[in-house]
Design brief:
The complex is a heterodimer. By secondary structure, chain A is of the alpha+beta class. Chain A has helices at residues 4-19, 30-35, 37-50, 90-103, 112-115; strands spanning 22-27, 56-61, 73-76, 82-85. In chain A, strands 2-1-3-4 form a 4-stranded mixed β-sheet, with helices on one face. The model of chain A has no long low-confidence stretch (mean pLDDT 85). By secondary structure, chain B is of the alpha/beta class. Chain B folds into 5 domains: 5-108, 3-Layer(aba) Sandwich (Glutaredoxin), CATH 3.40.30; 130-339, Rossmann fold (3-Layer(aba) Sandwich), CATH 3.40.50; 350-433, Ubiquitin-like (UB roll), CATH 3.10.20; 438-526, de novo design (two linked rop proteins) (Up-down Bundle), CATH 1.20.1440; 539-601, Alpha-Beta Plaits (2-Layer Sandwich). Chain B contains 24 helices and 17 strands. In chain B, a hairpin with a 7-residue loop joins strand 15 and strand 16 (571-572). Mean pLDDT of chain B is 85; it is low at 103-111. At the A-B interface, helix 1, strand 1, helix 2 and strand 2 of A face helix 5, helix 6, helix 9 and strand 10 of B.
């Protein structure tokens, strides 16, 4: 039987786990999938193994709300700061992996704040 | 990313010179004192450009900016706002111009005019991970409801929150729960209506796909409140991703005993099962939905008896929409008073809209009730593309109506939209520009209701079909003035005499376009002319003498109806033209115009 204390324990542990990793979120709701997010997601998973990005956690999330700019990839650093890349394709994701994930240089040209409006 | 609040602190050079550079450290010390440094993220921004005001601290998602000069002020902000959710008014930056400037600093989708309650976890957590939902205080509301409140108290909180059904009707949710609770029966049911069928609406899908556990938790809370032990989610089979994630969520919740027997050590047990709908629009009506779950053809029944008295298998049943349920856990956790601070007096909270049509930023938005349509279209939506003018906004899908430009400053809530002759509906919002023909829009929605009418009652089965025929006639240029009168009579008749909500609201698109755009109907009938150039039979193009001879129109014409040489004015042969409009779109100087019948080149 689950008690409140156990739920709290799960919360603490999950929060700790999330902090210890760089998190790469891909919006894979139906809208994202239709725009090609699944390919981007699978590509990222392959790149993670290929480049031994052990501190990166690739995860799918729901719709981020900016359907016109799907597929979107959000990179959340360990300190909580994040950048959202939008209109991603496999080629663009390759650029993000090479530049941001491997070298730590953010690709502002694909960021949401830059592309919106 | 998983923090409950974000603090934005300025870290520009001039602030540091004023020796407030240590503001981040001071905040951290205070947060540690209250043992909440893990819940709050501090982000150092560049200079806000407001150095004369002292150090600026922005608190998100509340979007409050403070100016603080001393350490005691920081202590106050942490103690009051961060700890107890009370805004410290005396330190707040009130100047609206400054506030606007600050807002521009945060040109980021989480920080703009939206307020995410329903979509709080969408796009942030992994929907397949129950742990991540728990990390965002998931299932804490259920625990709180079961441990701290009686079922009456839960209903009282929901009533006090003034939450209204988000499926369209806007019926107070707390009252609905109370009716179901007061019905005497040993077996009761909770049903989640996830049969989202409006064209252009996908709010429920986003919640189900992005945050399935919030629905499960809310249904369990509802079950506890009304005394039900079984819940059903009626979800469309056309949402395979949502179905898959819901199945996984139910399984995970069962494994952790967050669904099942004796939840949190109490004697309350609750199970949830999925029922798949096959995409009949009428099954979004609660009695038809219940019939469909029972295994019958989805057709509505006469109300009363309401489902709260006699619903699924004759037992008291509470049916709520996905979005309504998604509000419940937050209301239980943060309280009704907090929820009442958002939105307007009669419609509290937020509403999710699927913004589509002729707009720059299509997508899913969640705004507090009371936001004006102008803010939605121009600030959040980014306005109309291609420098076109806005003509109307269609809300409420096939049950709603059009809102014209002069009403754009109306704050959105359930009652104002009804007053404007439209309705909230489930939340589809389609923006139309000058290229949309309103007769065609009405025809489109009627075509939808004609197909989706279940056929049980005559006014809806026959009336919608006849209205559709008349609209077809008008858009082909064969309409007469009597047809418009007939249309109006039929529309009000269908609205008054239909059995369920589908028929009662089906004439709305016709009535509201007739009210606001009668001149367009008249142009179709009298002049045989479609001003927007949509109705093919009534569209004629000419190329006027501003043509620069770029040949773009001739290249784009699929049937070769345009003849012309570079740098010479082109000619259009209307006998070949199929009125596809490709030339008009291609023309860089706007030389191709739609004209009334007699004026065209032949």
């Amino acid at each position: 039987m689950t008690k409140l204390a156990e739920i709290k324990k799960i919360k603490r542990k999950t929060l700790k786990d999330l902090k210890s990793q760089r998190r790469i979120q891909v919006g894979i709701g139906t809208c994202g999938i239709a725009a090609g997010a699944k390919e981007v997601f699978e590509f990222l998973e392959r790149e993670k193994i290929k480049n031994k990005l052990d501190d990166c956690m690739i995860t799918g999330v729901g719709c981020m709300g900016e359907c016109a700019l799907e597929p979107m990839v959000e990179v959340v650093e360990k300190d909580g700061s994040s950048i959202i890349y939008c209109n991603m394709s496999v080629d663009r994701t390759q650029e993000v992996v090479d530049s941001h994930l491997l070298k730590g240089v953010k690709l502002e040209k694909y960021s949401l704040t830059r592309q919106k409006r | 990313m998983f923090e409950r609040m974000q603090l934005l602190v300025c870290g520009g050079e001039s602030c540091e010179q004023k020796q407030i550079g240590a503001i981040k450290d001071a905040l951290l010390v205070e947060l540690k004192k209250h043992d909440c440094e893990n819940e709050i993220a501090i982000t150092q921004s560049s200079c806000f450009g407001l150095c004369e005001k002292g150090a600026i601290v922005g608190v998100f998602p509340d979007e409050v900016y403070y100016q603080c000069k001393t350490k005691s002020e920081i202590v106050m902000i942490v103690e009051k706002h961060i700890k107890n959710n009370q805004i410290v008014e005396e330190l707040r930056i009130k100047d609206p111009i400054l506030h606007k400037r600050l807002k521009e600093h945060s040109n980021f989708h989480v920080f703009n005019k939206q307020n995410r309650i329903v979509l709080r976890n969408c796009g942030i957590i992994n929907p397949l991970s129950i742990e991540e939902y728990i990390a965002r205080d998931g299932y804490f509301a259920l625990a709180k409801a079961l441990k701290e409140y009686t079922s009456e108290e839960v209903i009282e909180i929901v009533k006090k929150s003034k939450l209204r059904g988000r499926g369209g009707g806007g019926f107070p949710t707390g009252l609905k729960w109370e009716y179901a609770k007061n019905s005497q029966s040993d077996i009761k049911y909770v049903v989640c209506n996830a049969d989202e069928g409006d064209p252009g609406a996908f709010m429920d899908r986003a919640v189900l796909e992005g945050d399935p556990h919030s629905i499960l938790e809310a249904m369990a809370i509802c079950g506890y409140a009304i005394g039900a032990q079984q819940g059903y989610i009626y979800v469309r089979a056309e949402y395979p991703v949502a179905v898959e994630r819901l199945e996984r969520a139910i399984e995970d919740a069962k494994n952790l005993n967050l669904l099942g027997d004796n939840l949190f050590g109490t004697d309350f047990s609750f199970e949830i099962e999925l029922r798949l709908g096959s995409g009949a629009f009428v099954c979004g009506e609660e009695t038809a939905l219940i019939a469909s779950i029972e295994g019958f053809r989805g057709m509505p029944k006469l109300k009363p008896p309401f489902p709260a008295e006699s619903g699924l298998w004759g037992k008291p049943t509470n049916v709520n929409n996905v979005e309504t349920f998604a509000n419940i856990p937050v209301i239980i956790l943060k309280g009704a008073d907090w929820f009442n601070t958002i939105g307007t007096e009669k419609s509290s909270g937020t509403k999710v809209f699927a913004l589509g049509g002729k707009i720059k930023n299509t997508g899913l938005i969640e705004i507090p009730m009371g936001t004006t349509l102008r803010d939605v279209v121009f600030d959040i939506g980014g306005g109309i593309p291609n420098r076109k003018k806005i003509k109307a906004i269609q809300t409420g899908g096939p049950s709603g109506g059009c809102i014209i430009e002069k009403d754009l400053d109306t704050p959105i809530d359930f009652d104002t939209l009804t007053d404007l002759g439209s309705m909230m509906g489930s939340g589809g919002m389609i923006v139309m520009d000058e290229d949309n023909c309103m007769v065609d829009v009405a025809r489109f929605y009627l075509e939808f209701t004609v197909e989706e009418s279940c056929g049980k009652c005559t006014p809806c089965r026959e009336g919608t079909k006849r209205m559709y025929d008349i609209l077809n006639k008008i858009s082909e240029g064969k309409g007469t003035l009597e047809d418009i009168d007939h249309l109006e009579v039929l529309a009000s008749m269908v609205a008054e005499t239909s059995l369920c909500g589908l028929g009662q609201t089906a004439p709305n698109p016709v009535l509201s376009t007739l009210k606001h755009f009668r001149d367009e109907y008249l142009a179709h009938v009298n002049d045989h002319y479609c001003p927007a150039g949509v109705c093919r039979e009534l569209t004629n193009y000419i190329i006027d003498d501003t043509c620069v001879g770029c040949t773009k129109c001739a290249t784009n014409c699929p049937v070769g109806a345009i003849i012309g040489w570079p740098k010479a004015i082109h000619k259009l042969d209307m006998s070949l033209c199929i009125r596809c409009g490709a030339c008009k779109q291609a023309c860089p100087v706007g030389s191709i115009k739609t004209v009334k019948g007699g004026e065209a080149h032949v």
